[in-house]
Amino acid sequence: MKSRVLSGVQPSGNLHIGNYLGALANWVKIQYDYESIFCIVDLHAITVYQNPEELRAKVRELAGLFLASGIDPKQSRIVVQSTVPAHAELAWLLTCVTPMGWLERMTQFKAKSAAQESVGAGLFQYPVLMAADILLYQAGIVPVGEDQTQHLELARDIAQRFNSLYGETFVMPATSLPLVGARVMGLDDPTTKMSKSAQGAGHLVALLDPPDRIRKTIMRATTDSNPAVDFETMGPGVANLLAIFQAFAGWSSDQMRAHFTGLRYGDLKKQVGEMVVSKLDPIQQRFREITADHSYVDQVLRDGAEAVAPIANSTVQLVKQRMGVFTW
Ligand code: TRP
């Protein structure tokens, strides 16, 4: 049997080239070797206020981008979290075996709650819901960025605690990240990872940005005080631009050195911009075709939910039985 891979993406912010190169492009590659479930986690998104209309639109947009990027719905499941009620149900059952102290330690909770005037209890529970997403499908492999490793560790702790209280029930999800791709940094600040929720105008290239905007953002990217590319002394901004080019072009390090050494930054940026534009163009075209109306995306999401529901429901049933929660 193929091992099961599960990952989740929030339908908030704009999916960008960092998400594509660091995650999506890998998922596309591995989807034939694993049984893959890609979850659009709208219940996580609402842990902070979302405009209702925008949220619904973002779910479809994200699904459209998954498909346009090459996720094959015959092969992989794209599932909207809220359409499979077992996610929320298991989250509650797991909440009851999760000590408060474990959640209080979560660095993302500390950071996010510090930025809010009033902190919803959902924000605190967020990692339990994520554990439920993972454990619901007994996923063995969970490809996530480093910012999520603490949450993944917590999912393991919760699984272990449940197993020791109620008997072997959950498969331990792997904490290793066997599927890391390029790590793309912010174009305005190459010391921080490119982030969907970052505010600044020059920070990211979104997958749906028009070509001129892509070129402009890259032309404005932070570099360093060298006049031209020098692989020995370059700063993180130049390294980031080169990494973006390399990941899209699929060039070897030798090819990169031979081509870019000594190139002035203006020319470097032009070439990076053209490379990104040329690679995003077919994705954007496919996206427009796929999302011309809702019907195709909605059908994919319905099929996804239908396909995974039996797995999810049988896990919840088993957990209920183990805990003594009443079932017929
Ligand atoms: N918390 C993850 C993030 O913000 C998203 C997520 C939710 C997730 N459920 C998941 C990731 C399950 C992997 C597996 O990136």
Order of helices and strands: EHEHHEHHHHHHHHHH
Classified by CATH, the class of the largest domain is: Alpha Beta
| Count of the domains | 2
Strand content: under 5%
What is the residue-mean pLDDT, rounded to a whole number? 94
The gyration radius over C-alpha positions equals 21 Å
End-to-end Cα distance, whole Å, is 31 Å
| Uncertain residue segments | none
Structural class: mainly alpha
Shape: globular
CATH superfamily of the largest domain: HUPs
Number of helices: 13
CATH architectural label of the largest domain: 3-Layer(aba) Sandwich
Small molecules in complex: tryptophan
CATH topology name of the largest domain, in short, is: Rossmann fold
Helix percent band:
40-55%
Number of strands: 3
Q: What spatial order of strands do you see in the largest sheet?
A: 1-2-3
Largest sheet: 3 strands, parallel
Short description:
This protein is mainly α.
Q: What can you tell me about this protein's structure?
A:
The protein has 328 residues and is mostly helical. It folds into 2 domains: 205 residues, Rossmann fold; 78 residues, Tyrosyl-Transfer RNA Synthetase. 55% of the residues lie in helices and 5% in strands. It is built from 13 helices and 3 strands, in the order βαβααβαααααααααα. It has a 3-stranded parallel sheet with strand order 1-2-3, with helices on both faces. Strand 1, helix 1 and strand 2 form a beta-alpha-beta unit. It is globular. The structure holds tryptophan (TRP). The site of tryptophan has 13 residues, from strand 1 and helix 7.
